[in-house]
Design goal:
It contains five helices and ten strands. By secondary structure, the protein is of the alpha+beta class.
Length: 235
């Protein structure tokens, strides 16, 4: 590792960013892949699908580490979807299964910081129809591609309850690096949360993008849609 730059006082300083300017805010437009499309959340088009998809869950465990849910009834779920769709930050998206044309989950871009080129993915809420499918991975890839390739952000963040083992494992599988624990960072659902922080940088994105694209190739899936090679093996 090369020594850091120093200023006229001999103090170490960070690398220059020639030509840097604030990045655009994410647009309210769709992005399509091979398995799915992500598009701005619209209750008029997505609420029926989402309510139906989430009510197929056997219990409420998928909501344990989210700030919302589980919902007492479909009306409560629809009300929250209406509030989410009106938000600019978080900017919520529906995940559309191209095979059925139905919305099967949501995720959001949030804590949007154009001046510093930092943005977070959060509010990841995947129904049973989406969990452990190629769609769930491709949806994450499509948002990353928008953030880095289309908008030119420098840092993409993932945060979760430190006790949420599956979320932490997913972050690592997707290529995020663990940065540490923020203790007693959040209060939600009447309990204290230590938050695990992860990040992916623009300098790391080209290699990660190549791994995603190799994983998403048609030849990587058998006739039943099962992966032949794991994403982690392609990094």
């Amino acid at each position: 590792m090369s020594a850091p730059r120093t200023n006229e006082y001999g103090q170490p300083i960070g690398p220059e960013l020639p030509g840097w300017s604030a990045r655009p805010r994410p647009p309210r437009t769709s992005v399509q892949g091979r398995f799915c499309r992500i598009e701005p959340l619209d209750p008029a088009r997505h609420a029926d699908d989402l309510v139906r998809a989430f009510r197929q869950a056997a219990d409420g465990r998928a909501w344990t580490y989210l700030t919302v849910g589980p919902y007492a009834d479909p009306a409560d779920h629809r009300a929250w979807l209406g509030q989410a769709a009106a938000s600019e930050d978080p900017l919520h998206h529906a995940v559309i299964d191209l095979a059925t044309g139905c919305a099967v989950g949501t995720l959001a871009l949030m804590r949007i910081d154009p001046a510093n080129g930092v943005i977070e993915v959060g509010h990841v809420s995947f129904s049973p129809q989406l969990q452990r499918t190629p769609i769930s991975t491709e949806a994450q890839y499509l948002l990353m591609k928008r953030v880095f390739d289309e908008l030119g952000y420098r840092r993409y963040e993932w945060k979760c309850d430190s006790l949420n083992g599956p979320s932490r494992a997913t972050a690592l599988r997707l290529g995020f690096s663990f940065e540490g624990i923020f203790r007693q960072a959040v209060v939600y659902k009447g309990r204290s949360r230590d938050t695990a922080w992860f990040s992916l940088l623009d300098s790391e994105w080209p290699a990660r993008k190549a791994a995603f694209e190799r994983w998403l190739e048609p030849g990587n899936f058998d006739a039943q849609g099962r992966q032949r090679r794991r994403l982690g093996d392609l990094a």
